[in-house]
Specification:
Helices cover 76% and strands 0% of the residues. The chain is mostly helical.
């Protein structure tokens, strides 16, 4: 039964994957269902057998990414790790998602503003709640004297913007490998937080 569901979903998965690449390249507004059908290699009418609308595609991409990030932060929050390892684990997850699932993460980060209600408000609330959870981990580290006295919400914005800057790495012709990128970013960001002696 599970195998049949996976096979059934594969065409939809392909559509979502191609759509994410097109939304990143052209933007959500400039991508038409006809463009998408052409890229997937099916008739535009056939596309509607799998997806109701372009907005449904954007919802699926945005909420799939949001669910991945929310599930991960919930697991990390509940773990018994010290604060600095929690932050490092979160940042490594962000970096790997940006490297391995670049198109979907990029679209969820940049094109979510095109979502329609009630999805738009829901997604905005999830983004805010995620940043608050991340900031509360930093605040715990500040209280425990593991992290410098900084403004946690500002630190989160700076770190998340740094990770979204990996977009430039994707376009670079002479780039370091994924592991070096991840390790370099972690060293810079974690050392910037860590309270010394």
């Amino acid at each position: 039964m599970a195998k049949a569901q996976r096979r059934k979903a594969s065409k939809k998965d392909l559509i979502l994957q191609k759509a994410a690449a097109m939304f990143r390249e052209k933007g959500f507004a400039a991508t038409s269902m006809r463009d998408l059908a052409e890229t997937v290699g099916i008739e535009a009418a056939s596309l509607y057998n799998h997806i109701r609308s372009k907005n449904e595609i954007l919802e699926a991409i945005c909420f799939d990414v949001a669910n991945r990030f929310n599930t991960n932060i919930d697991i990390i929050e509940a773990s018994k790790q010290a604060v600095i390892p929690k932050v490092e684990t979160l940042l490594r997850f962000h970096i790997r998602q940006m490297v391995e699932n670049y198109e979907e993460v990029y679209v969820a980060d940049r094109e979510w503003k095109h979502l329609e209600e009630p999805y738009l408000s829901n997604f905005q609330n999830q983004r805010r709640a995620y940043r608050k959870k991340f900031a509360s981990i930093l605040e715990e580290g500040i209280q425990k004297n593991e992290i410098k006295k900084i403004d946690a919400p500002t630190a989160i914005l700076i770190m998340l913007h740094a990770v979204s800057g990996i977009e430039s790495w994707h376009r670079s012709k002479a780039r370091i490998n994924e592991r070096e990128l991840e390790d370099n970013m972690i060293m810079i960001m974690i050392d910037g937080l860590r309270k010394q002696g």
